[in-house]
Amino acid sequence: MRRLFQFLAAIGIVVVLIVGVVVGINRYVAQRLNPDPETIATASLRGLREQNRLSAFAAQYVAVVMSKQTRLGLSTQKTLIMPGMVRYEVDLAKLRQRDVHWDASTHTLSVLLPPLETDQPQIDLARLREYGDGGLLAVFTDAGKRLDAVNRAAGQKELQRQAHQPTMITLARDATRRAIERSFTLPLAAAGIEAKISVRFADEAQTTDQPWDISRSVNEVLANQQ
Questions:
Q1: Mean residue pLDDT across the chain
Q2: Per-residue pLDDT at 96 exceeds 70
Q3: 11 pLDDT higher than 80
């Protein structure tokens, strides 16, 4: 009788182990066949952060500046035409898990991006043009070199000014927004999940149709799962 009890107990343990394995396999398969949107979003977020910086938009500008110097009744002036390209970037390393929110009721993934940045203008040296009226002041002094330095600094500043025009910032934000949307939409679509991706910049005015802070962040979801 004792051996029978031990035998039945052993069978029970085996059954429990088998059930546990089956449950684990079913859970694994379910996650593979029915992936969780938060899990996919987290994987996409990690992929973005590994890129460090994203540049989805660049534009060409031309700065035209002129400077003049007068000494002892003599004067000289120079004009500089400086073409340059400015890239618009987002530092993806600053993205945090709390910047991504999933709203299951509306199937909306909201992403809050760091502010848009511009790099230093890349000057097209082949198209750089300088014009000056010469004069005795340029011949006998270093006025010419001083004017060159002043013009180049002013040209850099002018290129940055043009790059920060509201229209260009809007175009750059829209291009970056589309790139980020694709980064989240494609993995979700591959898993058969239909979702609306809402992307906003941290320094951008919040509109009333964007559902912020109404759902759990990806970080909170993962913490609960653990």
A1: 75
A2: yes
A3: no
d(CA 147, CA 139): 13
Cα separation of 203 and 115, whole Å? 6
Quote the pTM value. Answer: 0.69
Confidence class of residue 209 from pLDDT cuts 50, 70 and 90?
very low
